[in-house]
Amino acid sequence: MSSRLIGVGVGPGDPELVTVKGVNVLRAAEVVVVPVMDTGERGRAEATVLHYVPARKVVRVVFALNERTDRARREAAWDAAGERVAGLLREHGSVAFATIGDPNVYSTFTYLAQTVAESVPGTVVETVPGITAMQDLAARSGAVLTEGIEPLTLVPVTAGAAVLKDALAGPGTVVAYKFGRQAGEVAEALRETGRIGDAVWGSALGLPEESVRPAAELDGTPLPYLSTLIAPPRRDGGRGGKL
To answer: What is the pLDDT of residues 101-126, one digit of tens each?
Structure first.
């Protein structure tokens, strides 16, 4: 039988936001892999998984998730992680990989699956969707992501604040991921495009250190790396005006 590698989205941090299907897949898998930084600290995915799976089934695999300057070191870490997971697949029939958010949205799983599929031919790759940070932030802040025919644009600020500014100049809601280290530039872009009034940001959603604040309070102080921003458009049509 073919080996199965299943990427399971476990949400932004609140263990209650893992889907029933996600929990069932995690429990059914022979091994559950969780990514950890080379510092060894427990990540959100691992903390969430341990609410549903016994520690003996969980395998911690090191990814250089905090390495953004040394490309050779980062790629070496990826290769080592891929081979570790490939080895687990050769040994076990079913391996689940837990990833925060959704496995098909800016996820570590995407790259891992490509590497493993090359190492273990015939591997069946599957994904289980998860709640994203933008959905959780919308629920916690009361921000409406889309109405009627509005578009929704998702931008990783790791691509640069200029990309975000271009998106803010367009229509619909703009969501920014990973903007914490460029909080000052993000605030400036929001003000220049007239979007700061209704925008909100959040970090550590569902965790004890959670913060959900109006973007107007951004003062340029760096925020946690995994901060999320929602900047809705100006809505003047009244209830149902855009339907």
So the answer is: 999 999 989 989 998 999 999 999 99
For residues 220-232, give the mean pLDDT. Answer: 91
The two structure tokens encoding residue 105: 């949205």
Q: Dihedral, CA atoms, 191, 195, 199, 201, nearest 10 degrees?
A: -50
The strand order across the sheet containing 152-156 reads 152-156, 173-177, 228-231, 200-203, 211-214
pTM of the model: 0.90
Phi-psi region of 74 (alpha: psi -120 to 50; beta: other; left: phi over 0): alpha
Q: Tell me the C-alpha distance between 149 and 54, whole Å.
A: 45
The sign one gets for the Cα dihedral 61, 14, 143, 146 is: positive
Q: Annotate 15-30 with DSSP letters as a single string.
A: GGGS-HHHHHHHHHSS
Is the pLDDT at 228 greater than 70? The verdict is yes
